[in-house]
Amino acid sequence: MERLLKNKALSGWLMVSPLAAILMFFLVLPIVMIVIVSFWRATEFSIIPDFDLENYQYLFGSAVTYKVFFNTFKYAAITWALTLGIGFTVAYFLAFHIRSQTWQIALFLLCTIPFWTSNIIRMISWIPFLGRNGIANSALISWGVIDEPLEWLLFSDFAVILAFVHLYTLFMVVPIFNTMMRIDKSLVEAARDAGASGAQILWNVIIPLTKPGIMIGTIFVVTLVMGDFITVRFMSGSQSANVGRLISNDIALLAYPSASATAVVLLATVLIVIATLLRFVDIRKEL
Amino acid sequence: MEPRPRSFYVLAGFFGLFLLFLYGPTLTIAILSFQGPQGGLTFPMNGVSLHWFRDLFEQQAVGDIWGSFRRSFALGLMVMVTTVVVSVMGGLAFRKRFPGSGVLFYLIITSLVIPSILVSLGVGLIFSQAGLTVHWATSGFGAQLTWTLPFGLLIMFAVFNRFDKSYEEAARDLGASPWQTLRHVVLPIIAPSLIGVALFGFTLSYDEFARTLLTSGSYNTLPLEIFGMTTNVTTPVLYALGTLTTVFSLGMIAVFLGIALLGARRKARAGSDRGKGLV
User: Fold this and answer.
1) Spatial distance between the Cα atoms of B204 and B145, rounded to a whole number of angstroms
2) ipTM
3) How far is A61 from chain B (nearest CA, A)?
4) Would residue A7 count as lying in a domain?
């Protein structure tokens, strides 16, 4: 027994065996299953084992697919740009402008608390704000900016993006703040002594050193938005679609094989995007 | 102290707006949940009452809110304990390289980035094809772990990256066995971060929607119940429920933070006496 524990490989395996078992059964097997089922056929009541490429032929042959994938990338790109801009600014303020550590921690916590509350509730909470008779419309009317209530505030692409930014900016703030806090402040001082202006320091010193944090935040935001289906469904009032919604619609119709085929393509797309991003950052080193 | 640059005030204003953006909507529904019995889903307030909260505690026309709350709470605790134990073991194992550690690391990343609906769909398919019934405590539990474990493990990796090995060496030099070193040296040092892992485990499970959608079976968890309500409930009772579960989440965060603070205080009192001895 003692010798067993001394064996590095074996003790390592023993320690990770619960983790490996969980990931095997609830991550790897489900992916394998989805890949298998994507070749099956569906009748109205059941799904039948088969090796049939029809699901994929249908998927790639339909114009809807391309439109929906385009939409998914559009949401991801816009959300990414907005969350990066907001997240970077907030993290920069916390890391470089707040001088006492207690305040830094307190304000940082204040930014992260909503992350630990329900996303669904946070989506619902936009209804009184954006609705036809909501706060935004009544305010704009009373200020005389508009005469008619705006119809595109709720249940539109605008609402979807707004909700994404609302839900996911934290995923940018946290890793960027984490990297910024590790920047040696004397580098900033050195740049200032050497005559750099504020903008030059930001552009040539801080941003390059913050890149790993930006990359990690990007990975979070892009995957969350690309894999989402509930925000799009709820905030667009079922008027817009992304790939996740395509899958969930098929599931609702019990068309599991076609849902699986779409899921396989989505997973491949997400993994390619992530693999590309991971070339720019070594996650394990940055933690 | 240097005077604050002008950019400080601009950024402070931006930060304030960001906080308003984060908290404003939630505060709005908190206020609106006190609507009078005739009140609608938006302003103006039609009187102030506890009507909609009372409604929640009465027999429900739709669904089973308290049953789903109990299930979500139990599931959250199950996921929390499992996440802490498995993450600590995983974190300890990953301190050394072992054959297969690279593959496992990429699996953890995959678990983090995979669209939630795929986990839901895949786990649902496996259970149905194996002839098992999906249930929140089995398939739902496992599906949620694929979301909480990566967070727990990433925290543990971060903790062990900063861990000073000389404490363990000192313990070993004093004759401690590997188990004693773990129990009396390593675990107490990493204990505060375990509170963080536990908080992640509980809240991510308690709020999880997509991964439980197809894996919870006939008994809904709370987020599923709430989402069901959004399609057929058009009264402020929805806001009352939202406010109540947000208050509950905030309460849980406060409990975890409180435990962390108590731990830190105890450590400060009973910990090292360096610098206090007689010279």
Assistant:
1) 10
2) 0.86
3) 22
4) no
What is the phi/psi pair of residue B234, to 5°?
A: -120, 30
Residues of chain B with CATH 1.10.3720.10: 63-232
In a domain, A279, yes or no: yes
pTM above 0.90, yes or no: no
DSSP B41: S
Task: Count up the domains in chain A and report the number.
Answer: 1
Structure-token pair, residue A275: 């693999």
The CATH number linked to A99 is 1.10.3720.10
pLDDT in tens, A35-83: 999 998 877 777 778 787 888 888 888 888 899 999 999 999 999 999 9
Query: How near does any CA of chain B get to the CA of A144, in Å?
Result: 19
Q: A98: domain range?
A: 67-286
Asked if the structure places residue A57 within a domain, the reply is no
In a domain, A50, yes or no: no
Fold entry, domain B63-232: MetI-like fold (1.10.3720)
A254 Cβ neighbours under 8 A, 6+ residues apart: A42, A44, A45
Single-letter code of the amino acid located at B134: V
C-alpha dist (Å) from residue A1 to A4, A10, A11, A18: 5, 11, 11, 20
Tell me, what's the pLDDT at B58?
74
User: Residue ranges of the alpha helices (H) in B63-115?
Assistant: 65-93, 101-113
> Among all chains, which residue has been given the structure tokens 């405590």?
B137
Residues 89-128 of A with CB under 8 A from B: 89-90, 92-94, 97, 99, 107, 109-111, 113-114, 116-122, 124-128
